[in-house]
Amino acid sequence: MCQLAQLSRWPDVQAQNLFAVDAADRLVLDTCAGALAEHGAPWPESVAVIGDHYGALALGALARGAGRVRVFTDALTSRRAIENNLAALAPQWSGRVEFAALAEVARGAGHVLLNLPRGLDVLAEQADAIAAAAGPAVQVFAGGRIKHMNRSMNQVLAERFAQLDVSLARQKSRVLTASGVLDNRPASRYPQRASHRVNGTSFTLAAGAATFGAARLDPGTRLLLEHLPDLSGHRTLVDLACGNGSIGIYAALTHPQLRIAACDHSASAVASTLAAARANHVEDRIDAVQDDALSRLPEASATLITLNPPFHIGNTVT
C-alpha cells in the first residue's frame, strides 16, 4: 500500500522543511472515509480530485479503496509530481489515474476531493465546474490549512450547494463538506472576457480564474505588441508562457500567414488561450498546450519566439 509519507515533491522544490503531504490532505481523506462509513458504503469506483499538489489525495484515495481517480491540477509541476510518485510508489495503479480538464474532472462524480485554493475566484470557478458536471447528490470534501481559509469560502460553496458542513479543526486544518447541487445557483462568470485594441487591431481575451492577469492586457504585453517587428518573413511564432494568449491572438490577427505554437505551465492559461482563439476566430492557427518551456519542440525548429517574461508562481508575484 502507498504510504503518503513517502511522497516526493519532485520536480518541485525539495527541502527538509518542505513536505509533499500535509494535515489538510489527511483530514480530507479521513472525512470522506468517515462519510462513507456512516452510510456503510465502500469507497466508490470513481473519485474526482481537484488541486492535488503532489498526489496525496489521488494516491490516498486509491490506497483506501477507490477504483479510479480523475485528477485536475493547474500546475504542470504538480501533474509531473503526481505522475512521478505514481511510477515510483504504485506503478500497478498507473492505469487507474486519469488527468482531465476542470470542466470534465467531476463528470458524473459522486465524490470530489478538493484542496482549497487561495483565491475565492478560483474556488468559485471550481465549484461551478463541479456543480455543472457532477451528479446532483455529489459530495465535495474541500480541505485546507486554517491560516489560508476564511468565511467567504463557506459562502462560495453555500451559493452552489444545498448543505455545507464545517469540520472540527485538526492539526490546524479544516474540511468544508458541500453536498446537493442547487438548481438556483448563480451562473458561472468564467471565462471572463474583455476587449482590447492595439495599433488599430481589436481583439477579445477570455480567461479562467486561475489565469494570471485574467483577461486584462498588462502594460508590458501592450508595450511588446506595440513594438513587434515585421513578422511577414515568418511562418510560425512560438508564444512561450502564453498566459491569456494576448500575444499569439494579436499576432495571428495581424499576420494571417502565421501559425502560433503557444505553451504555458498553467492548465488554466492554456484553456484561456484556446478560448480566446475561438472568440477571435483564429482557432485553426493557434495550438496551445501545457508544456515545460519548449520541451515538446525539436532543436532548431523555431525562427521567432515571443515572451513576456513570467514573474510569478501561480498568482504569487515573485
Describe the fold and architecture.
The protein is α/β, with parallel strands linked by helices. The protein contains 9 helices and 15 strands. It has helices spanning 23-38, 56-64, 76-89, 102-105, 120-133, 151-158, 219-226, 246-254, 267-279; strands spanning 46-50, 68-72, 97-99, 111-115, 139-145, 161-166, 173-181, 192-198, 201-207, 236-240, 259-264, 286-290, 305-307, 312-313, 316-317. The strands form 4 sheets. A 7-stranded mixed beta sheet has the order 3-2-1-4-5-7-6, sandwiched between helices. A 4-stranded parallel beta sheet has the order 12-11-10-13, covered by helices on one side. Strand 8 (192-198) and strand 9 (201-207) form a beta hairpin. Helix 1 (23-38) runs parallel beside helix 2 (56-64) and helix 5 packs parallel to helix 6 (151-158).
